[in-house]
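Duplicate of earlier report; Uronate isomerase input re-posted below.
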Amino acid sequence: MLDNDFILNGKTAQSLYHSVAKNAPIYDYHCHLSAKEIYEDNTFDNISKIFLGFDHYKWRAMRYAGVPEKYVTGDSDDLSKFKMWAKTCERLIGSPLYHWTNLELKNFFGVTELLKESNSEEIYNYCNTKIKDENLSPVKFIENSNVKLICTTDDPIDDLEYHKLLAEKSDLTFKVLPTFRPDKSLNLLNTDFEDYIEKLSNVASIAIETYSDFLKAIKSRVTYFHEAGCKLSDHSLESLEYFSTDEGEVSLIFSKRLKGDSISKSEAEKYKFFTLKQLAKEYNDRNWVMQLHIGALRNNNEVMQGKTGPDSGFDITNDFEISSHLSRLLNDINNEASLPKTILYTLNPKDNIVLSTLPQCFSEDGVQGKVQFGTAWWLNDHKRGITDHLTSLGEQGMLAYSLGMLTDSRSFLSYARHEYFRRILCSFIGNLVDSGEFENDDELLKEIVEAICFKNIKKYLEM
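Output:
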């Protein structure tokens, strides 16, 4: 279990992984790490702080296993929390969490035993000794994982102080760049929308009284992010219902909301997508990549959200029709010659075919894979989900030009997920070769695997 050939089915898969994929650099172009934590680079207190401090994947599993909340996000001691995770983990048959946890322990701490309740205290103490003796910190975990790029997720009102400080450090072997995530400014139905607009107004030093004022303010923040090295934007589309509209109607809708009047769902959608089209022009002008994350249904347990806050393990896959609405959105932007490079992600695997075929409708002369179907995202980030994604890309798109893996994580140990993906990728390609469905050409296979692991995203972002 978890030996050198874990998940690698066949000689071709083993050769591709060990000779090509294993030591390839990591370009983690979408994550939720903290630039402040990276800059301060403090040695971690203990393994629980790293394992369980921000990992809502693990929190969900522990709660479902009946673990009391005090051992999940509560005030229990860290050893007890680790033991509770170990007890949960050893029963996670079929779960990527079982694989990720044990890969993390093996890769970062040299633990070769599988984590169980019976050995949890021993492993806890061993890891903590290693953390102390080797001063294990965010930068050490990043550099030991051969990471070359980290793109964090940042609100337009952020001052990016720590990104700027990190850019001044000449001793780092990796870059940390911000990503522009303006969701709070695009969702009129948020109860705190007016408060957010006031904060945006203050940061941009622009009085926001009209929609035109708002556009000036949000675009000024695009410029601010660009000057700090930003190369990507990101948008969470938790609904997708396209309506035709114009700036006059959207301006009236915006004014209604600022006055505190009620807004209908259709009005909110009109505002969101018209504004997204205006932002897409800014992204395109700066050669940014626009990311659209589609299909999360967030905060399903209001009681627990009140106790633990958002993004704490109560989100699920949404289920709505996306093809015509997404197509119209991209087409409108493209009609104005302002479609930036775009990555589409879905949380619902029913949409794999849509997102593996739609990008080819927006090819650009001489450009390799301008619109991309992004990696298996979040709740699809497991062996079957990744394999289904690779299959869809291979059958309907062009797998060789795909952008590979990202962590989408708040954990500094999550680079083990790149290993997990690369093993599955090499096994997938190896199976096609061994079954005679693709040519056994060593140089070509090496080129394809390297491209998916890091070269495609490096070229796409023009690093």
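Residues 265-285 form the longest helix (21 residues).

Merging into the original ticket.
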